[in-house]
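Title: [Solved] Amidohydrolase family protein 3D structure

Original question kept below for reference.
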Amino acid sequence: MSYIDFHTHAFPDKLAASTIPALEKEGNVTAALDGTLTALLESMDRAEIDISVLCNIATRPEQFDSILSWCHKKRSDRIIPFPSFHPESTSALQQINEIHACGFKGVKMHPFYQRFYLNEDRLSPFFAKIEELGLILIMHTGYDIGFPKERRADPAQILAITRKFPDLKFIATHLGAWDQWEEVQEILAGGNVYMDIAFSLEFMEPQKAKEIIEAHPDDKILFGSDSPWSDQLETIHLLKKLGLGEKKEMAILRGNAEKLLNSY
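Solution (posted by the thread starter after getting help):
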């Protein structure tokens, strides 16, 4: 049985060569890979990962076209790219429609790199459009290791958004909210939101991770590594060490992702 990684990143080769060292310095972290698509595919082979969702982030409005073009070029049976629009773009709603028309399954947003708070009213039309079109929304949630600790997408804001848009396929990354896991357990666990496990198990007590996962609906936890920032195979090992049982493990490692991707 092979797996599906719902949260990865890669860059064009020349961009990776400068971007990865800069981000390593910002976050005081060491990447597991060099950030190229070639390295990601090699990592997938090592970890028996059949499919990776490739998350992109438009850090400026004018990046939409280049990201969409990159996604078209890199889309394959093994790589499912999620493009990105910037909320400050005057064409954002059109761009969401274009993402949908091109057959992509979802979009990625990041409140730190895109300078927004999750509960801002200006975002509601975008969430409504994403919900209407049936796209998947992968949202960076919680703090970010490369930025000061600001509550841009905390569990209370996530809960409010998922209540306002109950049919929105909202993925709260980093097991609900990075480094806000007590609040995740209190506010989000058991609710109507997907969570991936990307870049979280390395930073938590295993018992806390297990409690959150076991308190959440069985079909709403997704395997994600945040590669190149975490090693895909190591993330799988960390998940299996939690002792969740084979049925739940396989739902997380493949079944839930397969069902979600096929829902579009």
